[in-house]
Amino acid sequence: NKEQFAGREQRRIRQIFFAVPKESSRIAEIDAKAGAVMKRIAEGEDFEKLAGELSEDQSKQYGGDLGYISRGSVLKEV
User: Which of 3, 43, 46, 64 has the greatest number of CB atoms lying within 10 Å of its CB?
Assistant: First the structure.
């Protein structure tokens, strides 16, 4: 059934989104916040739960789930 699965490689992704403030004085605060979340994830906390609690966008209601993406369909940084 190879023809059924042929096509572009896809990955399912999740995010925890923090809005970048216009005031450059708050960027360090957001970086620290993101670093603390990354540490919690590395220590074994559930990503989906953290996204639901901390993300600052609509994906929080889905545990940060953005669905499936294809290579080249999003920003290079992603």
Answer: 64
